[in-house]
Amino acid sequence: MIAKAPALAGVVAMVSAFAVAGDAIAPAAAETLRRVLASPLVDEGSGPDGCTPALSGLGGPVVWEVRLERLLLDGKALVETSRQADPNRYPLCIADLPMAKNAEVELSFVIHAGVLARAAGLVLRFADPQDYYVAEADALDGKVRLSRVVNGERREIRARAVALAVAQAQTLKVKAVEASFSVFLDGKFLFETHDSGIATPGRFGVASRADSATGFGDLFITVLE
């Protein structure tokens, strides 16, 4: 079950562009929504203000806190601080809006430490903690992977070996259109893959794993529907 989080404003900016065609006004660009997960206006140690905590897998309650992070844009990051050492534990924090099937989503993160994992995950099409997609970058095994979780069972769809940094800001991006998923790291295309296991709209969020110490920045979501 998803626990309630403090209800501060998580939306900072929504941008759209329009073009005039004859007498009609038509959208020229999709809207981009910024979900602030760790507001620079709140004190260090505060809970998340742009997402709701949840747990996928094993272990006790998750604990998400705002922490200082000089390497990210606003100087703050959202960090899962319980860091329970269970490889099948996936703390999540899920934004309430938007809900969409097709979208381009980008996340900044800083991986700091972890014995079992050093991971940063980007969640898509979230229905509940047992059903969602996740693109995960793990500096410990040097891979970026896309996985599908259905009825709590996790299946890796595709992965690529890549050098991931520790104590350095990086960005993970996924473009999901119907059954097609394109994954990027720091603006570089990694792979495209296809999967139709979850074909319904869902929410977006972030995922840690096991004892990862990772700082998460904001989510930038462009709905493509």
Structure commentary:
A hairpin with a 2-residue loop joins strand 10 and strand 11. The chain has strands at residues 11-21, 24-35, 52-57, 64-68, 76-80, 89-94, 103-113, 119-128, 131-138, 143-150, 153-161, 169-177, 180-185, 188-194, 203-207, 213-223. The chain is 0% helix and 57% strand. It is globular, with a radius of gyration of 17 Å. The protein is built from no helices and 16 strands. The two termini are 29 Å apart. The chain has a single domain (11-223), classed as Exo-inulinase, domain 1 (Jelly Rolls, Sandwich), CATH 2.60.120. With 225 residues, the protein is mostly beta strands.
List keywords for this structure.
225 residues, 0% helix, disordered N terminus, seven-stranded antiparallel β-sheet, mainly beta, Jelly Rolls, 16 strands
Topology:
Elements (H helix, E strand, L loop, with lengths): L10 E11 L2 E12 L16 E6 L6 E5 L7 E5 L8 E6 L8 E11 L5 E10 L2 E8 L4 E8 L2 E9 L7 E9 L2 E6 L2 E7 L8 E5 L5 E11 L2
Antiparallel strand pairs: 1-2, 2-16, 3-6, 4-5, 6-15, 7-12, 7-16, 8-9, 8-15, 9-10, 10-11, 12-13, 13-14
**Share of helix among residues?**
under 10%
- What structural class do the secondary elements suggest? mainly beta
| CATH level 1 name | Mainly Beta
C-alpha Rg, in Å?
17 Å
Distance between the termini: 29 Å
How would you sum up the major sheet?
7 strands, antiparallel
Shape: globular
**CATH topology-level fold name:** Jelly Rolls
For this structure, what is the CATH homologous superfamily?
Exo-inulinase, domain 1
